Each structure stands twice: as C-alpha cells, then as structure tokens.
Amino acid sequence: MTPSTPSSPTSLRGNAAGVLSTLADLRATDSPTHGGEILSYVYDSGIAELDALVANAAELVRPVNGLDPTVFGSVAALERDLIAFTRTVFGDPTAVGSVTSGGTESCILAVKAARDHAGVHPGTGSIVLPSTAHAAFDKAARLLGATPIRVPVDPSKSQVTAAAMAAALRDDTFLIVASAPDYPTGGLDPIGELGALALMHDLPLHVDACLGGFVLPWWPEPLPEWDLRVPGVTSLSADFHKYGYAPKGASIILHTDRDRHRAGYFATTDWPGYPIVNPTLLGSRTASGLAAAWAITQYLGHEGFRDLVADIYRATGPLRAVVEEIDGLRLVGSPIGPVFAVAADPESASPVDPHRWAGAVAEAGFTLQAQPRFTQTDGTDLPSSTHLTVTPVTAAVVDRLVETMRTAADAVRGMPAADPPAALADLAGALNDGVLSVDDALAIGSEATEQVLIGAGIDPRVAPGDASDSLDMAAVVAAIETLPRPVTAKMLTEFLAAFTNPG
Ligand SMILES: *Cc1c(COP(=O)(O)O)cnc(C)c1O
Description:
four-stranded antiparallel sheet, 43% helix, alpha/beta, binds pyridoxal-5'-phosphate, seven-stranded mixed sheet, 18 helices, Aspartate Aminotransferase, domain 2
C-alpha cells in the first residue's frame, strides 16, 4: 500500500483567506439555496434579516456542547423556550419533549420511546403506518429491530382508512404512526379516527408533523384537527429545519406523557466515565440548530409564522390550479397544505410523463423532485410523480413557475416515459428471467456494483459540482421502477459512497 497523499492542502496551509475562497468556489457550484428555484430540500423564508439573525445566533453558541446543559445552561434555557412555544402551537400546554437534530432523529425517538415505554423487548414488536409515512420509520424499525407494517392507502385519494389500519394491528404492535401531512403526496391522515383507534387498543399514536408542523397551525383554510389536541395522539414531531427556517440540524419531539418522553432517553452510569444522560441519539451535540430555531421563534412569533404561511398559501393555490388545468397532468391524492405531487393523468388522451416534464421544467431553471412509482402491499400503485414543496419565497416566482409548468407540459406531452439505461434494463431482464437471483445481485461487491453504474452511464466519479447536470433523472427513476427495490437501494448506496469518496 502506498501512503495516501492529501490532494491539495499544502498550497492552502496557513492561508485562511485561500481556504475560505476555495470553500466559496465549491459553494458556487451548488444549486441555489435561495430565491425559490429549488422546490425541495431548502425552505427559504425570503427574509434576509432572518437569515442574518440565524447565522449570528448559531455562531454565538458554536463552541457549546449540548451534551451537558448543566454545564452550558443556555442549552436548557433555549430548550425550555422552544418546548413552551411548540406545546402551545400544537395544543397541549403540558406536553414535554426534546430538541433533536432533525426529522429522522425525532421519528426514531418516537419509536424508541413507544417501545421502551411499553416494555417491548428489543428486536421484537411492530409499528403500523400508512404507505405514505416517511421512510424514517423504516429506518427506525430497522435500527430497533421492529417490524414496520405499511398499510395501503386508497390510490385515488392517497388516504388510509382507520379500518385498514385497525385490520393491520397485531398483538405485538406498540405504535401507530400518522402524517400531517405525508411527504410524498401532501395528504393529511385521518388523525381523529386514528386517535380513536389508538385509544380503543390502548396504543400510542405518533403524528409525524416534521413537514407540516410549522405551516398547518397557521394555514388559512379550515383543516380537520391533527395535533396534540386530538384524543389518542401521544407524540408529535416537527422540523425547525423545514418550515421553521432553521439551518439543517433542528427538530422537536413532543410527548403528552412524561414517562413516555423519559423512555426515549438513554442513560447509564455503568461504565468508568462520566454519567451519560442522552435525550436524543447523539452524545456531544451542537447547540447551533437549537439557538437558530430559538432565535427564529422569538423573532417571528405567531404573527410572523402566520404571515409567512400566508405567502406560502398564496403561491400554493395557483400552482395546484395550473396542474389541474394542464391537459395530461393531475395532482396525486388530496393535498391539504404546501406540498403536493404531480403525476400523468391516465384519463387524458395525451398524458404528460412527470419526469420528462420535470426535466423540461429544469431547463427553465426550476428544480423539482422525482418520486418513483410505489407498489403497495395490496398490489395497487401510487404513481410515478414529481414533488413540489412550496415555501414563502415561491410567492416571488410563482408567475414564472406557472408559465414554465405550462410550457414544459406542452414540450413533452405525449412522449413516453424514459427508458432505464441499457445496462440496468439488461440487469432487470436477467433478474426477471431468473438468470440471476435478487440474492445474487445483492451479493455483488462494491467495486463490481460501481462498474455496473459506470456501464449504465451513472458515473459516481463525476466532478462533485456536475452531478445534478450529468444525471438523467428520468432514466434513473425508470431504473428504480424496473429493478427490485433492494437492488436499487444497493446501487444508490454505491453511487453516493463512491461520489463522496476520493477516487
Ligand atoms: C423530512 C421529513 C422527515 C425526515 O426528516 P429529516 O429532517 O430529513 O431527517 C420525516 N417525516 C416527514 C413527513 C418529513 O417531511
């Protein structure tokens, strides 16, 4: 083995300005995080003063370790304020909770707290959730050794029924999950009925409001009750780093029951070091997300959130309306808030493939997110679709976006969906014909998997800033829809690992 040589640091050694300008050059290759042209991943309030406030707040606590609030009391003070604010917003003045690093962590903690509170043995138990619930619950189940039971939604409404959820409950079920709203289609689960179901079976119900938590409370249209007010709801997650406009690294989980909250903790004195008390999955942790979220809630208050939601609402209406209007496209299910998905309209004589359409929209500068077709456990499909997340700043570009959505549909109407890259179509064929088993495909090593990707034109050795231009998303989605899902997960893992490692 030859010792590895760092690729460039010598030239920047001792040169702080050079380090920063190199970083700035790298940042310049990113998709824009502000201005409304990217309708996923980033949540732009459009308020420059808020962004400056966030940066200063995060910087003020940068050296702090959130691991021990008794040493760094500011952490406890900020957390108290955020729990006080959110429990008012979500309708339970005595709720308790913890600030976490993000939605995934909040969801994992919801599952862990429910499991440990119920005394379910690690590696056993099940959780029941609609098809449309976030994959973070699959991750939680995988980590905790629980079985996720996904209940099909009615594909025409993209809604689960309480009866279907009831039928899926098992003796070992320890948690029911609902979304407010769900990420793939923006629909609201029937949380009132699910609360009644949870009460009837003496089970906890977690409402995943990671996405909608800081929008739905101020949404101008009436909505069915969905938060901690609903009898039977026992916990709720909401992401500050989505519609709370905080930088990535901030979410909250609230519980109605103190003991269930405590069951989410990990504490031990059973080792030779300092006593461990971790409310979340991390040990040492940044307070920057916490401080940023705190600063934002202080600065905006209820009125500030209400005004930003009014901007979001103003932009959402015309965007949903133009989808209904465009021949060949339709909305998926019944979105209720600022998030929705667009699919081909099978009733149109000339349907518009949503990924061809997103590609044409991208040519005009707007980035939309691709969602592959999903076959539910009952064999019905949620369609291949394009996801849009509307933020306050979308209001500033909504006319241009509406026009782009129309002209992009005209440009691709009637075109068939993209084919997967030939090499992956061949692989799918071999799997279909039984020439190769899924187990064989999963047993292929990382280097061979990378070669398959390169052969398919999905080359992870692409320059970091060029990936979004070089990837043909319509073809990638077609490949995901053609291959067995575990095989696609393996391919995607290989792509990202190779893309983020030196060649
Ligand atoms: C974003 C999201 C999550 C996961 O959150 P991360 O912050 O990306 O980890 C979970 N549930 C829903 C509904 C979400 O939108």
